[in-house]
Amino acid sequence: MTVDLAALPAWLDDRADRGEFSGVVLLRRAGETAFAHAAGLASRAHGIPNTIATRFAVASVAKWPLAVTVLRLVERGALDLHAPLIDLLPAVQVPTAVTPELTLHHILSMSSGLANYIDEDDETWAQFEGVIASLPGRGRRPADLVPAMRDLPAHRPPGVAYEYCDTNFVLVGLVLEAVTGREWSSVLADEVLRPVGMTDTAVEEIDRDPARMATGYLVEGGPIDTRRTNVFSLTARGMPDGGMLSTAGDLVAFVDSLFGGRLLGPELLAAMQTPQAPSPEDPEFYGYGCLLGVEDGRVTVVGHNGGDPGVSCVLAHHPGANATVVVLCNQDRGVWAAAMTATEAMGLRDPRA
After folding, report:
1. Three-point CA angle 339, 343, 41, nearest 5°
2. Which residues face 286 on adjacent strands?
3. Spatial contact of 173 and 184, defined as CB atoms under 8 Å apart
4. Residues near 134 by Cβ (< 8 Å), separated by ≥ 6?
5. Is 238 within 8 Å of 245 (Cβ atoms)?
6. pLDDT tens-digit profile of 319-347?
7. Could you read off the pLDDT of 269-322 as tens digits, one per residue?
8. Contact 326, 248 (CB under 8 A)
9. Fewer CB within 10 Å, N side or C side of the chain?
């Protein structure tokens, strides 16, 4: 059953009451807000409701602006997409499976063939939480993750196929630090966050209680009021593979600036939203730092999803309709149903649904 925009608030509120959604939905078309709604609690302990201005951890959605950061450096000649990774990183940070053929292009396009340091098939998050617990200080800089990645095998040679892998974007962050001599998130802020005006977006230490941040809750069964928070399930500070705090409004501003030509020139903007390798996940492909929905040979959706313990998000831009869907959720289940229902309510189609 399709839910129209008028009925969407009640649909979201009902799911929130049943513990199946908690977060915000923001829908834009042609630069105008078509729909905005918040449901559920940002803090169960303090009874604070989510609002459109609530800041959410956005997990892997952050890969997209980080990739744009890299592409801006490429555009200025400070980085070469086809530079071998072994020439960009200190030897102590290069995983043993990296060969001279593996380039920045491969890690930015998820076609490196490297293994993921996260077990994406573990729905309990136990493996991920085990990695976090082993990190110094629970992980505050990308170099802290190097031991978790160093001896992982390669699944295939670089460039053969798209395979989603968080290891790639930890390496992207390390490359930014090695090339610029600066902490990776400060480069992200200078290249994307500040030029766009994303004043509510930052990479922060979550154990320092960031302002207006929604607490994340793990959906593990049982009553809603017994769900664990994710404070011991995430790195203490955001990492390059997904650790940004943001708002729905800031993410829309990013999309508007990017597709308005204010962040990248035409050549790299086009390359960013072009499939960079064959995909076994058809109709989902990957460009540079963004997921692509492909239908009848055309890219119809550009964006990124995100999922961490206590976090689930969808950011999807439909270029043909000049429309954007943002759904941010402070629990790790329920975002996809909300995002696809909102997409249909806007009269849009996502080939990945």
Report:
1. 35
2. 291
3. yes
4. 147, 148
5. yes
6. 999 999 999 999 999 999 999 999 999 99
7. 999 999 999 999 889 999 999 999 999 999 999 999 999 999 999 999 999 999
8. yes
9. N
